[in-house]
Amino acid sequence: VCAIQNEKLAAACAATPDRFVAFATVALQHPDLAAEQLEEGVKRFGLRGAGIGGNVGGMEISDRKFDPFWAKAEALGVPVFIHPQGDGAPDQLNSRFQGNGYLGNVIGNPLETTIALSHLIFEGTLDRHPRLKIIGAHGGGFLPSYSGRSDFGCPTRPDLCPGGTHGTIKKKPTDYLKQMYYDTMVFNAEGVRHLAAEVGSRQLLIGTDYPYPWTKTQVDLILQTPGFSDADRAAILGRTAATLLRI
After folding, report:
1. Distance between CA atoms of 62 and 57, rounded to whole angstroms?
2. DSSP-derived secondary structure letter, 97
3. How buried is residue 103: exposed, middle or buried, by Cβ count under 10 Å (0-12/13-18/19+)?
4. Phi, psi of 47, rounded to the nearest 5 degrees
5. Where are the alpha helices (DSSP H) in the chain?
């Protein structure tokens, strides 16, 4: 299925090369195979990275089992876009997301991204593969908005963190936020401003969620966010993505 999808994605992009590029789909439950699929997708089909979920059948993507995939993405220099899938936080917490508010998506999807990115930091994936280009959906979930708590957890309770004060990682947890990328699907200008303040404006890429009808004003949102220079806005609206995706 992955091979067929990657081939068809490449064909769709080739039919309109001035408008589309695509991410490879990989069978991450088989990490060595996923690494091969990523390499084939990039080198044979011209795909620009991979799109994956926030966990693999309940296993965290920071597990050392997935290091072959991360090593391949790092070696190829391509980004990996992390977006929740059906077996992520919304399903695992389904009973608590019932009722009004569409909470399985509104809270559940950002929560899944928060968990995934936090594990990539604290389990040392970003230390083992420091040149990884990670893109987190939904503005990185709740992680950038509550980043200080990540820095205080292990120093406050080192007994609950294997390795002591910051576990076994090499830097302060919030330092890793600035080496990842985030889409701007946060829906209001203050959210975008705060995200930029936490991670840097050059780490942001415009998000649209098209064709899902969440918003039709994402370009306006970036233009209306205070504090950005024209160069910042140009980067968010295209230049950063063009660099990451080799457009």
Report:
1. 13
2. G
3. middle
4. -75, 160
5. 2-15, 31-43, 67-76, 89-92, 103-106, 108-122, 125-128, 147-156, 173-177, 189-199, 218-224, 230-234, 240-244
* Whether 187 contacts 215, CB under 8 Å: yes
Cα→Cα distances 88→55, 83, 100, 148, 161, Å: 6, 10, 20, 25, 24
pLDDT, position 162 = 76
Instruction: Tell me the mean pLDDT per 10 residues along the chain, length 247.
Output: 96 95 97 98 97 94 97 98 83 87 92 96 95 97 92 88 71 94 96 97 93 90 96 97 96
| Cα 199 to Cα 239: distance, rounded to the nearest angstrom | 17
Q: Are 236 and 184 in contact (CB under 8 A)?
A: yes
Q: What span, in angstroms and rounded, lies between the C-alpha atoms of 29 and 31?
A: 6
Structure tokens at 242: 């063009």
pLDDT number for residue 164: 56
Question: Tokens 């890429």 belong to which residue?
Answer: 205
Bridging pattern class, strands 204-205 and 165-168:
unpaired
* Residue position matching structure tokens 């950002």: 110
